[in-house]
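Quick one: structure for this chain?
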Amino acid sequence: MNDESYMRMALSLARRGLGRTAPNPAVGCVLVKDGRIVGRGWTQPCGRPHAEAVALAQARDAAQGATAYVTLEPCAHHGVTPPCAEALIAAGIRRCVIACSDPDPRTAGKGIMALSSAGIETVTRVCEDEARALNAGFFSRIERQRPWVTLKLATSLDGCIATAAGESQWITGEAARQHAHLLRAQHDAILTGIGTVLADDPQLTCRLPGMEDRSPIRIVLDSQLRLPEHSALVRSALRTPLWVMTKASASAALERAGVRIFLLPELIPATVLSALASEGVTRLLVEAGPRVSTSFYESEMVDEICWYRAPLVIGAGGKQAVQPFAQPLRALSHWHVIREAILGTDRVLWLQP
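Got it. Here's what it folds into:
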């Protein structure tokens, strides 16, 4: 096997941490010696321990003389745990293959420099694009001071999320809905508007068997603080974090129920995303009604669209997933399908601008 093959193993391990490591990146590490994998690891929940530490603990003495495949430059700063670059050096690895450099200014090249200075052969930029895409949220928070935003849509072929009478359960089939729960588990937080909460009383959790603990932070945009105390979101706030962003005064009753309230001057996407970035959120899933979805889209704050399409047409009067735009045709953004899949009778497309 070559460097790319082992790095793709490390990337596969890193994906296991998506949605669980914020504000840290999701990193994977594979240790190889004499053609045999002697250790492997990925970043654990809440970002500790790091992938390298997990792999080294598994390899123990076998790490001496091994090659380490790491999806992100090993950290070089002292935090809750010692620097991973120092741990790899102390373990006696012979070679380190790194997918991409760390944009965090506390590391940013220092990890690579430490390894090279210790006499370790260091190879970089192996599967770099794949590694950057996997940790797009971490890079976005560091470089743009906002989370990576995925807009989730589930519509009919003609772009509707409900009939004229408001009926919406269920447009997509069981396979698509299960996939959407997995999508939730891969994000740090999920955002919706108070209109959706009042209309549907959603839970916004991951309810796949065995993955209930992977539910993201639930966020509600609620300018007038109308969130009902008896809603499913509030009733579960002590089990799964619930944040409410509002312009109104705080509510003692909601806070007693476990709700965290953010008072913001305005509930526009830029302000909301800045507040979330300051709280360590790197990957945000927007799963909302037309008004909120459109506000993020028109603000050019959507990095990716995950679009579930059911093979049916709702027709005239159906509720559209997004509101009409005022721009002329030539001013509208063009999106490209980067991958797609069939889920039962439905299709899911991932698009980026």
